[in-house]
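Supplementary notes (optional reading)

For those who missed the lab, this is the record we used. Protein: thioredoxin-dependent peroxiredoxin. Length: 152 residues.
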Amino acid sequence: MELLAPGSVAPDFSLLASNGQQVSLRQWLGKSVVLYFYPKDNTPGCTQEACEFRDAQSQLEAKQAIILGVSRDPITAHTKFIGKFNLPFLLLSDPDGVVAGQYGVWKEKNMYGKKVMGIERSTFIIDPQGVISHVFRKVKVAGHIEQVLKLL
């Protein structure tokens, strides 16, 4: 499968969100979207990443950008994660990994010496026309939000 690159039209999707509604990417045409994929709610790296996005919320809003987080976790886990860390953005549930597959972030990973399939931490910046402007793969959480803000 060919990986999505800057200049590609972002694949549309419809997923259940933490607010209980089905959301589609196309509903945010006209705004920049920071679409980030992460492995699991309430794990150290994912918590740090979510909190950094939370802490940059006003800067992102000033740039007319919205944040959407995607993992395979169920909505119940997302709701607890949002409540525990006061996250002001939607988390989307991709239980079958279909959207992760469309975006090329469903990968074989090495966990404690065992090969497992999982989401590779990745961020896609999608412009107001629905075109991918930047792709970050194998994201290192430290300093990531600064990179995102700079590119918006």
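If you only remember one thing from this example: The first helix runs from residue 44 to 55.
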